[in-house]
Amino acid sequence: MSIVKRDAIPEKIKREVRQYCKFGCIFCGNPLIEYHHIIPWHEVKIHSAANLTCLCSNCHTMVTKGLISNQEVIYKNKNPHNKGKDFWPSMMLGYKIFNNEDIAKLSIGVANSYFKMNPLKYNSNFYLMVPIVIDGVPLIAFTVKEGRLNLYLKLFDEYNKVVLEIINNEIVSRLDFWDITFKNNRLKINNQQNKIFIEIEFEVPYSIHIKKGFLMYNQKGYKIRSDSLVTLKNNIQFSNNEFYNFSIGIAMGEIPGNMSCAVRLP
Ligand SMILES: [Zn+2]
């Protein structure tokens, strides 16, 4: 197994590429993206928006394996999948959030409990909502950046090794066994054994529902099932709760900064 990690592309260039590709993979529109150099980096040795494009992890793997040719990439990059579409289901990520009122209407479901969150506002352009935390580390969070909804996700294995990290819809690092699909309005991340690590349903425009999940860190963790959220260690179960006006949903151990937290476990 190898960690797929890219060179540092300047943020300004990434933004330009994301905007050009309409916030999704040029082939399938999947909003969780990786950046791809059309002419390989080792040949050009420079990052330029014109030579970069957005691919999802699946299409990126196909390109790397040569199952999608470079000519197809060049052709598709001229007419990205999401171009000209105002809205399609998987656009919930990258979905436009126009103002504070839109943010206030967002409801985040975890198993069958619901959180109406009060996002932490860093500036008029960046908001943060963190449904799940362990020992001060957000495992899943949503940000509103530049008026769009983004996913933050950090998955660890039982040895505390990061196996997948997504920051603002960008797959920053991953082990190569992941299957990340975004079909209809459902994001599913599973490994080769078909074990689901997370399943999130986006109901446009104001509902995000984490339906299934297996999230762990520091040997602590949560199992999210349709009927309840269960802690791995001491089997504490949550179901059918509603919480209002917190920046963090459920936390075990420390919480980051001075954010308000709905449920705090030892
Ligand atoms: Zn794709």
Describe the structure in your own words.
The chain is mainly beta and 266 residues long. The chain folds into two domains: 3-86, no CATH class; 96-265, no CATH class. 14% of the residues lie in helices and 44% in strands. The chain is built from five helices and 21 strands. The chain has helices at residues 11-20, 41-44, 57-64, 70-78, 100-105; strands at 3-4, 34-37, 52-55, 107-110, 113-117, 120-123, 126-134, 137-145, 148-156, 162-167, 170-175, 179-183, 186-190, 196-203, 207-217, 220-224, 229-231, 237-238, 242-246, 248-252, 261-265. Strands 4, 5, 12, 13, 14, 15, 16, 17, 18 and 19 form a ten-stranded mixed sheet that branches. Strand 14 and strand 15 (207-217) form a beta hairpin. The relative contact order is 0.15. Residues 1-5 have low confidence and may be disordered. Residues 25, 27-28, 30, 55-56, 58-59 line the site of zinc ion.
Features:
single chain, 266 residues, mainly beta, 2 domains, ten-stranded mixed sheet, nine-stranded mixed sheet, globular, binds zinc ion
Outline of this structure?
The protein is mainly β and 266 residues long. It has 2 domains: 84 residues, no CATH class; 170 residues, no CATH class.
Write the layout of secondary structure elements.
Elements: E1 3-4, H1 11-20, E2 34-37, H2 41-44, E3 52-55, H3 57-64, H4 70-78, H5 100-105, E4 107-110, E5 113-117, E6 120-123, E7 126-134, E8 137-145, E9 148-156, E10 162-167, E11 170-175, E12 179-183, E13 186-190, E14 196-203, E15 207-217, E16 220-224, E17 229-231, E18 237-238, E19 242-246, E20 248-252, E21 261-265
Parallel strand pairs: 4-15, 5-19, 7-20, 20-21
Antiparallel strand pairs: 1-11, 2-3, 4-5, 6-7, 7-8, 8-9, 9-10, 10-11, 12-13, 13-14, 14-15, 15-16, 16-17, 17-18
This protein binds zinc ion.
Residues 25, 27-28, 30, 55-56, 58-59 line the site of zinc ion (ZN).
